[in-house]
Amino acid sequence: MKKVLLILLGCFLAAGSVKAAPGDTTWVQANNVQLSYYNNYDTSISFPTSGTSYRKVLMIFTLGKYACPGSPTYCGDWDYTVQNFLMTPTDTFELGRLITPYANSGAPRTPLTWKQRYFYDVTPYASKLTGPAIMRILFSGYSGGFTGDIKFAFIEGTPERNVTGVKRLWYGSFGYGGSPDINTHFPAITETAPNGTQSAELKFTVTGHGSDNTGCSEFCTKNYRVMLNGSAAVTKTIWRDNCGSNELFPQSGTWVYDRGNWCPGAIVYSHHNVLPGITAGSTFNTSLDFDAYTAAGGSPSYTTEAHMIYYGPMNRTVDASLEDIISPSNNENYFRENTICGKPTIHVRNSGSAAITTMTISYGLAGGTMQSYNWTGSIASMEEADVTLPEMYLLNDEAGVTGTRTFSASIASVNGAADEDATNNTMTSQYVNASLWPLTIRLGLATNNEATSGTASETSWKIYDMSNNVVAQRTNALVSTIYNDTVTLTSGCYRLELTDAGCNGLHWWANPSGVTSGTFLIRKLTGTIIPMAGYTTGGTYAHDFGCGFTKYFYATPWAAGVNELGTKAMAIDAYPNPAQDQLNIDLSGIDHVNGTLRILDVLGRVVITENCMESSKLINTSSLENGVYTVQFIDNADGSNKLQTRIIIAK
């Protein structure tokens, strides 16, 4: 059973990925506030009392929106820093940082109902997350429109390794390139490693803000060094180079620009700097050293937080932890990777001391027949890897079927034997199916005038099959040119990748004057546009996709005539779905129904045929075996006109 202190959530990480119950999970509700202006937003809470071992402790920050009263100029429109502090009677630690997105309510992804979750592993602070405390949200914003909600999940069990000590060293926002030198804020501190220590890391969270005449510190690349006993032990770059691939896109501001270790709308990743040679009783001194720099006007700065964390030995030798399901998933943090057909992808961490070289992984539709995959490779201790699984045939069979499904994955064995900790081996995710496309499609690319060099366009597209072979492409495009490529595929799952080398899409409202706009549209041979979920084709944010856009689809001959019965909005609905012995068929948008209903199995064989003269029809499906079927309505006046949907028979 689950223990709850302040609030019981229906399931762990609702609407995203969920862990199989490893034992008791204690939930603690912290802040739930409107972030209306620059301020500290404090909430008093009570964490569990000490004495319980937790395998993992997660902090989940949910960012949302509210309608600002009085119709101000800005409401949820800017990229503001959000810092989350744990304040106990004796300690203060920043547990996580994020930057709000440019989230105008007119943007397609950020209506007033929008929410985005940010996940932080705060297990190293478990000894501090006990008893009474204050959680503080420091919102560094000069307009309102955002909400902040913090919850903690305490998952009982044995952690990957025990923490022997944690200490806050330096913190604050400091000017860069002026007087005093920023390095004066990070003086050498002498430390002695606690008993039981086998390793140590300096966790450093840093983001660049403000701008001088050269763009520092928000738009410049600088380094810092972690000094250990007077020598540089680690050098890190303060930069985030993938903002144009942001999972939250498009945004109503300059979201594609890379920045000083942050992107608008994204979590801020801390640097985990391992210090060599630190064991129990080691006495050492450490400091930070930023690149020398002289600011050219303006007010560049860095916002910082540094913690020294000491660890004991690994608690297990062989332990593979299934950390997340990337696809299939409805998790908004994997928006670009979904929806899919074909091959699922999971994320695995090696939580043991021995390298992982083999894993047996079972996966499939929850409650159904599982597929099994014997993975081989190498994941070193405390390293992580994405694992792409072989094609899941039900993802292909169900392409085009509406409704939410549940995917399940489980690590059955590791290195040829049972895993030492089975509590972190299983996860599920909610997902929706990929789309059905016809075998023959027309890809229309109108390039803008931005070039990689000469007259070569920044934009290209490729279609891959599930063996990662390129089956069609347009990679030799010229600027300011229209291309209409007709591609004929065989039945199967495919991945379409649209890329832009400039990472500003084919159109971006913030492009400099003189940059033209391009378009990218997929059509049936009839000229009907095939919609691509997540890709905007009209309005201010049309063709605004940053560095790229990926679309999975299943090509089938039965998709060619879908929804093409004239010009009205026509549809076919089949329910219940899944069905057992009876199936209701409803047709809408057809003035005079005169056609044939057919049900086909996954091999394309017609298993039921009935005349259809009314908009509603009841079909006896008692003779059908369990599986996925296609339901088609064919107009008797023109057999090329079809409506279709997919169903599941589950008895």
From TrEMBL:
Annotated keywords: Disulfide bond, Signal
Signal sequence residues: 1-20
UniProt GO molecular function: oxidoreductase activity, acting on paired donors, with incorporation or reduction of molecular oxygen, reduced ascorbate as one donor, and incorporation of one atom of oxygen
Xref: InterPro entries: Cu2_ascorb_mOase-like_C, N-glycanase, PHM/PNGase_F_dom_sf, PngaseF_C, Secre_tail
Domain called Peptide-N-glycosidase F C-terminal: residue spans: 190-275
All residue ranges annotated as the Secretion system C-terminal sorting domain in the record: 575-638
Coiled-coil ranges per UniProt: none
Gene3D superfamilies given in the database record: 2.60.120.230
PANTHER family, sorted: SI:DKEY-256H2.1 (PTHR39319:SF1)
Name of the protein in question: Peptide-N-glycosidase F N-terminal domain-containing protein
